[in-house]
Amino acid sequence: MNRFKYSAENAPKAWFFLIPALAIIIIFNVVPLIRTFYMSFYRGSLTNPQFNDIQNYITVLTDTKFHTAIKNTSIYAFVVVPVALALSLLIAITIHEKIKYKDFFETIFFIPYLTSMIAVGVVFRFLLNGDYGIVNFVLGLIGIGPIDFLNNPSMAITTIIIFGVWSGLAFNIIILLSGIKSINTDYYKVADMFGATKVEQFRKITLPQLIPIITFLLTVNFISSFKVYTQVFAIFNGKAGIADSATTAVFYIYNKFYVQNRYGEGMAAALILFVLILLFTMVQRMIMKKVAQR
Amino acid sequence: MIEIENLRKVYDNKYEALKSINLTINNSELVCLLGPSGCGKTTILNIIAGLLDPTSGDIKFDGKSIIGMHPKDRDIGLVFQNYALYPHMSVIDNIMFPLVVGSNKLPKAEAKKRAQEYMKITKIESLEDKKPGTMSGGQQQRVAITRALVQNPKILLLDEPLSNLDARLRLQIREEIRSLVKRINITTIFVTHDQEEALSISDRIVLMDQGIVQQFDRPQNLYLEPANLFVAKFMGNPIINTFEMLKQDNTLVSQDFSLDLKKFDKDRFKCDLDGDKFIVGIRPEYFVLSHTPLFKTKVTVKELIGKDCILNFEVNNQAAKIIVDTNSNIEEGQELAISVEYENIYLFNLEGKRIY
Question: Is there a contact between B102 and A197 if contact means CB atoms under 8 Å apart?
Fold first, then answer.
């Protein structure tokens, strides 16, 4: 058979067009991943590596600092993601249903997403300041505080959670709004006709219809939460909180690599984080699939 | 009984969709709202359903006004054109939906029993656990109707229920709809733009155009006794032939043929022949091939539709059609000698009002 004969369902020529994209993906994504895996078994400098077996993994896994980092990261992810998602859903539905100048408010809520996290972090430092911050002023009015958000080690996680929830809203709201808008309005007309209340309509129509979008948001939110770094950097002035009280997994990897120059251990920690995120995402996918089928 | 009184609707963009509609629909009657796009038929349905508010006028169910009432309190079941079944719910959950929401919700077991009863009536028991996405259009249709009926409403409203189905299924489903609503004896209002659909299932038809009821009558009268030129043109397929003719003494003349007014049945005149210009309507089936023709012409195009065929020809410099038996074996280009059945001619004045 002629190799160049046309076939509608199988076109080897496609590989030709894929080469540029594939080359970039291989050089910048696949090779670094393999390199990370390779380096996690070596110690010494980058130019003179020595094979170290699984010693790097043992070191990282028994390091109490790593435990703290993973613990902080998990608390952050498991609080921020659900809270931010629930709040976003509430705000998105309010904007969609009740608000007159929808486009204006959509823009307002999207602006944080366009703003640099570092700039917002500086503003938050002002807002949360123990002495002259407006947050403490308002809390003072209702008889709470003052709370030292920035300099008290035991408040550090709470502070980045607040900041994390805030910074996660913009993206979630925009995506959820587009999801809500795409739901057939006849569904609600029918439900209205049958006398379903707004709450019932939300539970029985909006929520099930949004499942694919919620699954997507949960996945990307969890992944980015496990990799949290910028938020901490921005709000604690480049440090991981007072006395490393808010250190996260990525902070730990960064320190190992650039501060302590223990490249192998840094790569081992990175790989452990990668596997944790991968496993978690897979489990989450399975759960959401079950939910969607119901 | 549904009484619609002086119903008027002007949309926000100043478009006057309905201009003073008056209708009375009897209990357990199957009425069709028929008309071209934009005639206001769906607007009426939506106002009855409570999805739109009228600008003025009133609608009464059994003497009680329902304007200002929430749709759920109107005792109606509505089937949307696209069915609006919930794709994430199984058939039984879709049908149970009206029973398990709102202020009069039933316990789940009871709702399920009731849903199953209705599924038996509409013969969809076997679909119980399917999702709407996996069913054919006809099945979805039946589920949507079942869902509309499950609250046992007094009135069933159907918005172009057959337009999403293929031609053959449409024939079958329209008969099913008629036999179903007659069996459970529910007052039904049905919107369609398809005259054949309307003619075949309705007890009475409301033919609308430009926000006005053109004729509200039994299907047969719409066809045989059109109230005006619009009705005559809308009903019947192929469309009625119309010719502008001049009255000269006792004949109506046009370029290629003339009609003898003495042969018209005097009892059928609705009023006197004022003026000198009239529009004569002759349905293609009432032209006849004859040895004593009114005019002769040639077949331009032949369209076969089965038992009959449509022959296109030209007369008075305009296109016209005649229906003949397919067995007559007339071919394109052949000469036709055409006469007319006088008892089946319609006469309209220039405003479209029927005179004869």
Answer: yes
* Other beta carbons less than 10 A from residue B296's beta carbon: 13
Cβ distance B84 to A192 less than 8 Å, yes or no, reads no
In a domain, A4, yes or no: no
- What are the sequence ranges of the domains in chain B? 2-234, 241-348
Residue that is written with structure tokens 């970039």 in the block:
A24
Burial grade of A270 (CB within 10 A; 0-12, 13-18, 19 or more): buried
Query: Helix (H, G, I), strand (E, B), or coil: what is residue A152?
Result: coil
Q: Are the C-beta atoms of A280 and A226 separated by less than 8 Å?
A: yes
Residue A222: inside a domain, yes or no?
yes
pLDDT, tens digit (0-9, with 9 covering 90-100), for A221-274: 999 999 999 888 988 888 887 778 888 999 999 988 888 888 899 999 999 999
For residue B69, the chain A residue with the least C-alpha distance is A193
Q: Which residues of A touch B50 (CB under 8 A)?
A: 193
Among A187, A190, A207, A294, the residue to mutate for chain B (most B Cβ within 10 A): A190
Interface membership of A193 toward B (CB under 8 Å) = yes
ipTM over the 0.85 cut-off: no
pLDDT tens readout for residues B312-329 = 999 999 999 999 998 888
Beta bridge partners of B157: B78, B189
Q: Is the dihedral of CA B164, B169, B171, B173 positive or negative?
A: negative
- Domain contains A187: yes
**May I ask the CATH architecture of the domain B2-234?**
3-Layer(aba) Sandwich (3.40)
Q: What is the four-CA torsion angle of A237, A238, A243, A248, rounded to 10 degrees?
A: 120
Here the CATH number for the domain that contains residue A105 is 1.10.3720.10
Residues of B in contact with A208 (CB under 8 A): 86, 88-89
pLDDT at A52 over 80: yes
* DSSP state for residue B12 in the 8-state scheme: T
DSSP symbols for B134-184:
GS-HHHHHHHHHHHHHTT--SEEEEESTTTTS-HHHHHHHHHHHHHHHHHT
Look up residue B237 and give its DSSP letter: S
> For helices A156-181 and A207-226, what crossing angle results, to 10°?
140
Domain with residues B241-348, CATH architecture: Beta Barrel (2.40)
DSSP class of A259: I
Query: Domain range spanning residue A246?
Result: 63-261
Among candidate residues A294, A257, A250, the one with its CA nearest the CA of residue A272: A250
pTM score, whole prediction: 0.78
User: Is the fold of B2-234 the same as that of B241-348?
Assistant: no
Measured distance CA(A90)–CA(A85) in Å, rounded: 9
pLDDT of residue B228: 92
Residues 33-92 (B) with a CB less than 8 A from some CB of A:
49-51, 70-73, 76, 78, 80, 82, 84, 86, 88-89
Residue tagged 């550090």 (tokens): A156
Q: How many domains does chain A have?
A: 1
